[in-house]
Amino acid sequence: MAQTENTHQLDRKMLQFSMMEVDGILMPQAFEGVWERICNFQARPDDTFLVSYPKSGTMWMVEILDMIHNDGDVVKCRRATSILRVPFLESKFINMEGAGSGLDFATTSPRVLVTHLRAHLLPRSIWEQNCKIIYVARNAKDCLVSYYHFHRMTSFLPTPASWEDFCEDFMSGKLLYGSWYDHVKGWWEAKDKHRIFFLFYEDLKKNPRQEICKILKFLGKTLSEDTIDKILHHTSFDVMKENPMANQTAFPPNIFNHTISPFLRKGMPGDWKNHFTVAMNEKFDEHYKKKMAGTTLTFHTEL
Ligand code: A3P
Description:
This protein has helices at residues 5-15, 35-39, 58-69, 82-85, 124-128, 140-153, 163-172, 180-190, 201-206, 208-219, 225-234, 237-242, 278-291; strands at 19-22, 25-28, 48-52, 112-115, 132-137, 196-200. It is of the alpha/beta class. The protein has one domain: Rossmann fold, CATH 3.40.50.300. Strand 1 (19-22) and strand 2 form a beta hairpin. The longest helix has 14 residues, at 140-153. The chain is globular and about 50 Å long. Residues 52, 54-60, 142, 146, 149, 205, 235-237, 240, 264-267, 271 line the site of adenosine-3'-5'-diphosphate.
């Protein structure tokens, strides 16, 4: 049932996460009691981890990885909603009412798991077991826009006071999971020391077949051209948007209000141009230059 903006505001009061800081990074307060257990998570050598800053195309990659994992079996990939098929590492330990409470990991290996954690906060055993990690990165401006609309539609995050205020919060890293700049830079550095495949949302959008073939190579898996075609179709924006197991409508409407903004919103690099004013763009670019000085990491901001 569609929710009105008013009832959504009421739900927000009840469901909004209280926040705490871990190493200066905003995280749900609910992690406090379980942080030690997150840190002590026991990885297995054949676990694959998908890592991203929020709104970088995580659920898109979840769908791609689940399809790869299940050899392109569309029926199997509709067995449950995304986060039950490929669970969030952090969610294993907390009880997010209505949002997958009682989440548990598949016991059968190989497992695929997701996390938004920064590289230096990743549980040690994931490094020790030399697990394969796929990091998906998205340009800052589109990430910001997507995060802004996500804050509007979900009741567990505060409603942005204004678009301008939200931009300031993004630039200063005062959002859940902290600074986009530090997240992408930390993982970019980590990729030279660990088994990490660093992937860009914009490349995936531009040439999904090529990027999926790179992922397959990284995972040491071979699939037929027909199966790759099936994966491309099943994970395209339009097909995912209509798939209730991938479009996040399985979450109760008091958690994700798709009438305010759908989870699969635009799915297009360059949408930031519809949001940024000239003055805001100049300010953002200047700040970006400072924050990203000294890194070789570069992004495409449109196709
Ligand atoms: P927009 O809000 O710009 O549309 P995450 O899963 O990390 O929260 O990221 C959500 C973003 O990924 C949303 O961006 C969503 O539309 C986009 N996305 C999800 N599936 C996609 C797909 N198949 N193709 C392109 N973008 C996709």
